[in-house]
Amino acid sequence: MTTIKNDAWSRFAQEHGPDFATVEYISSLVTAPEAIAGTIGHSLMNATDPRVHEAIGLPRIRVFGPSQLDYEASEAVVHSKYDGSNLVEWLQAVTGRKDVCAAFNGVETWSSKIRSTIYRSIVEPMVTACGVPPRGLDFYSFIAVSGFTPFGIHSDPEPSFIFHLGPSTKTVWVWENDTLPKLPDNREISLHTDKYLKSADHEFTLSPGDFLCIPAGRFHLFRNNGPAVFLGMSYYREDNHDELLQAISTLVRRSENQQDLANTALVAASNGEIHRELDRRQSQRLSRGHLGPYRILPVELFNVDLPAECLDVPFAVNNNQISVMGQSISVPESISDEDISRFFQPGKVLRAVDLQKLTDNPSEGNALFIALLRVGATFQTTEAGS
Ligand SMILES: [Fe+2]
């Protein structure tokens, strides 16, 4: 399914990437905003499911009130299973906040559906147009009702890409560096919005489907004009210093010698471990399509009696191992790689009974059906499966 105007998106990435140094607005870039918002809903369903928490851990979802982080409401959202109803109304009910504003990080890591949509619509054309993002991408969503963003005027260290999904509009102000190079006293944010609004260099009212690129370090401010959702993307530019620190820190954490950190780092440098760790990090990002790591969902989430949709994802099967965007899972040995490839066709509806025909043992067909779901090759609404 096409969700983004491929030509306009590729042209934008080619002309402005990989630096993305100018403010760029594209009207109606997203052709199916409600479809993308729906995939965010699927992520939230999984991320708030207690069975997923038990197996994988908790999501990062923060709920804000005006100029504050609301810990109680954040806890309430994480621990109330989203039922697929109207997203904003559900958030309001769960948090008891009419003015709810929620941030959901790593939104692409919780559902195979959003992952395939984001990869095929946004990431793949962008990489073709302007190359590999040096340190990967991060997707998040803001869901809010009204008023200014709780942290007011702020800037981000990476370029921000806003895919506005609606249903209401959102107003965005952006200041160029010459106009507002920094806030007084080197403050990181300002809630004195009235004081600055007139001096903004850009003002956009984003309708559902509109896109905005805000370069790194530019101060900006959002105002919600009604209930709305957006999908955000951070593009991590090259930072060799940070990359090296992360690699060393991973090696030190893995090391048995936690007491003598300097020596551990020295040994890792002298025997080539740091090089290997740097290479490993990069190849992991490449294999998972520059997205955050996919969370293999627990078996209990899926139902063998319900159909699944084969997703449009990079898919490989070799020696009874299925690999999908950096994750792999084993399938029963009685089923050949050729059979798996034959049955896995993007867009096709797959049923466990189809796979049972591949083997005399129905439980092996069922195991393959579940394996495809778990690795993110297929999709089944967990709402129906629960
Ligand atoms: Fe921002």
UniProtKB/TrEMBL annotation:
Top-rank lineage group of the source organism: Bacteria
Domain JmjC: from-to ranges: 111-252
Stored PROSITE patterns: JMJC
Gene3D superfamilies: Cupin
Protein name as it appears in the record: JmjC domain-containing protein
Phylogenetic classification of the source organism: Bacteria, Bacillati, Actinomycetota, Actinomycetes, Micrococcales
